[in-house]
Design goal:
This protein is α+β, with helices and mostly antiparallel strands. It has two domains: about 10-225 and about 235-450, no CATH class; about 465-594, Heat Shock Protein 90, CATH 3.30.565. About 75% of the residues lie in helices and about 5% in strands. The protein is built from 20 helices and five strands. Strands 1-2-3-5-4 form a five-stranded antiparallel sheet, sandwiched between helices. Strand 4 and strand 5 (about 585-594) form a beta hairpin. It starts with 8 loop residues before the first helix and ends with a strand. Mean pLDDT is about 85; it is low at about 1-10 and about 555-565.
Length: about 600
């Protein structure tokens, strides 16, 4: 038989397949904002002028603040919803979704109003004394105000559509946004000469299209998650804020850091240094979308694993990060470094100019941060879920603000704009040292394995000898696996009746999946079976990657011409103490308690 007791290879295979099925769409979602920035800066530098590039750079901290709050909302609510899904608490999942949209709408409207007031009242004077740059920034603020609400809501919907396995809709929305943004920039900036207002208006209208394409799913009545403001439980607001706050604060720290770093650049390098830094950061936003997407996938998987108290899946998720994600990102970073001159040339054609050389240096040094950031982001994600609030706040303070600001201030007077770039790399090393140091402090030794690195509490999940993992790939393996489940129960003192029911449940449900699910397409499938003994209760979890199917629907079908049809499933539903089904991230998850 393929698969054995406590085998971890097969579950890792299914998880890896799921991870890299989800990753492309998450990259596309993350890339949307980066492409928006690239398009805007290219049109700004080529058709508006260097002052427009400075204005885009000065708006960066504002955009980071908006992103920080949006991240707090969708990060906290998605992690909370994933945890509820792992616990099979459907009503709480719906509440987290609805509450997130209410809070996001309120935030988006407030920020839009503030940007309008700032644009009309010359709010740009708070960011620059250059009147030419300030005038352009005021126009830019007015255009951006139109797109804040759909941008924030679009980010929330993207997160939840992934949980509903509606990645195609988000893909379509993302592609349509890119096309609309490009066309409108050409019309507003190149043809109509609308300057900075045209730049921001193009992306704002594109964001409305992005949001509406996604929102249509929730108007169709076909969505699993429903928007139900009536009876919403506001007490989940605190949980959303607590879970999402560390990541949001990190983005907020970056907004403050952006103001400080911009000031240091202007003082020691000049306006051209700011243009170079803005150009390199904007183009690299495309590459940064990949670590961000990796985190987005891991965030969903980790939240569900924490809800299920699934220690092995947590290990597998970190293993994927180390063995697949970091090598992939290293290759991408090497390619960026090799193409640094070409990338700088997109913005500044004169290769002898100082601004070109400074931009090229950014493409050569800044990518070195990315592999390090993948590790720290994953540790941060687990820390949020496991309540390690002090650790995460300390790490985020250093990562988002203290390290970069300090080393920028220390190095830039001596080595110019390269000091800013090097400071970001040193920051990645400092953040990693903080997480490893925490592990050493808690375990009183250097970490030996994933559990040590994450500092997973001993009380999480069940002991190894109280859990059995099996993988079924063929119908003729089902009976053998059922016998192993039966024996596993007897070995743990479960009475014969419940042990027999556990084995029968496994046999009937796994057989049903193979018989009906494997034949729906030509793909290779497997069923991951986990049996847990906890508090004198046996819990069976069957997880498969076949087409979505709720066995309860089959249990309610009685054929008058063949009363024995589906009798096995109907019997399991009568005898089991609890059965819950969910389709999570495209996987069928069936939980049976006996």
């Amino acid at each position: 038989m393929e698969g054995s007791v406590n085998s971890t290879a097969k579950p890792s295979v299914m998880l890896t397949k799921l991870y890299f099925r989800l990753l492309p769409i998450q990259i596309l979602i993350a890339v949307v904002g980066s492409i928006n920035g690239i398009v805007s800066t290219l049109f700004a530098s080529n058709y508006v002028g260097a002052e427009a590039m400075s204005a885009v750079g000065l708006y960066g901290p504002i955009n980071l603040f908006i992103g920080a709050v949006s991240t707090l909302l969708f990060g906290g609510s998605q992690l909370l919803a994933g945890e509820y899904m792992g616990k099979s608490q459907v009503r709480h999942t719906q509440n987290a979704f609805t509450l997130d949209l209410i809070l996001s709408t309120a935030f988006g409207l407030v920020i839009s109003l503030l940007l309008v007031l700032a644009g009309l009242a010359n709010g740009a004077r708070l960011f620059t004394k250059n009147e030419a740059v300030g005038g352009i920034l005021n126009q830019y603020l007015l255009g951006q105000a139109i797109g804040v609400l759909p941008m924030v809501l679009g980010q929330q919907l993207s997160a939840f559509l992934s949980l509903e396995h509606q990645n195609k809709r988000t893909t379509v929305a993302s592609i349509v946004f890119i096309i609309v943004n490009l066309i409108l920039n050409y019309v507003f900036v190149y043809l109509l000469k609308m300057s900075a207002f045209g730049l921001s208006l193009a992306s704002s209208l594109g964001m409305w299209v992005f949001f509406l394409v996604q929102f249509q799913h929730y108007l169709s009545g076909k969505s699993s998650l429903k928007i139900s403001p009536k009876g919403v439980h506001w007490n989940d607001t605190g949980k959303i804020v607590r879970i999402g706050l560390p990541t949001a604060l990190n983005t907020g720290y970056q907004a403050v850091r952006g103001v400080i770093v911009n000031a240091v650049i202007v003082k020691y390098v000049g306006e051209l240094g700011l243009s170079a830094f803005s150009a390199a950061n904007t183009m690299l936003g495309f590459a940064w979308a990949i670590p961000g997407a990796m985190l987005a996938v891991s965030r969903m998987l980790m939240s569900i694993s924490v809800g299920e108290e699934d220690r092995q899946s947590l290990r597998d998720e970190i293993k994927i990060m180390f063995t697949r994600c970091i090598p992939l990102m290293t290759v991408i970073c090497a390619a960026i470094i090799l193409l640094s001159g070409t990338l700088a040339g997109f913005y500044f054609q004169d290769r002898a100019s100082d601004v070109y050389q400074m931009t090229k240096a950014g493409f050569m040094i800044l990518p070195l941060c990315m592999p390090l950031s993948i590790i720290s982001m994953h540790f941060t994600c687990y820390g949020q879920l496991s309540g390690k609030d002090i650790l995460i706040h300390v790490a985020n303070a250093f990562d988002g603000f203290i390290s970069v600001s300090f080393f920028t201030w220390l190095l830039t007077p001596a080595i110019g704009i390269k000091g800013v770039y090097v400071a970001n790399v040193i920051n990645g090393i400092v953040t990693l040292i903080i997480f490893v140091g925490y592990s050493v402090l808690k375990n009183k030794r250097f970490p030996k394995n994933t559990d040590d690195l994450l500092v997973v509490p001993a009380s999480f999940g069940v002991p190894e000898n109280e859990r059995m993992d099996l993988t079924v790939t063929k119908l003729d393996e089902v009976v053998k696996v059922a016998e192993e489940v039966h024996q596993f129960c007897l070995d743990r003192g479960i009475d014969e009746k419940r042990a027999y029911l556990a084995g029968l449940s496994m046999e009937e449900m796994a057989g049903n999946i193979i018989e009906h699910g494997y034949t729906k397409d030509k793909k290779q499938h497997s069923v991951d079976v986990r049996v847990i003994h906890k508090d004198d209760e046996m819990i069976l979890r069957l997880k498969d990657d076949c087409v979505p199917f709720d066995p309860k629907e089959r249990s309610e079908i009685v054929d008058p011409e063949d009363i024995t049809k589906n009798i096995g499933i109907r019997m399991i539903y009568r005898l089991a103490s609890d059965i819950k089904y969910q389709n999570i991230l495209g996987l069928n998850v069936l939980m049976i308690k006996v």
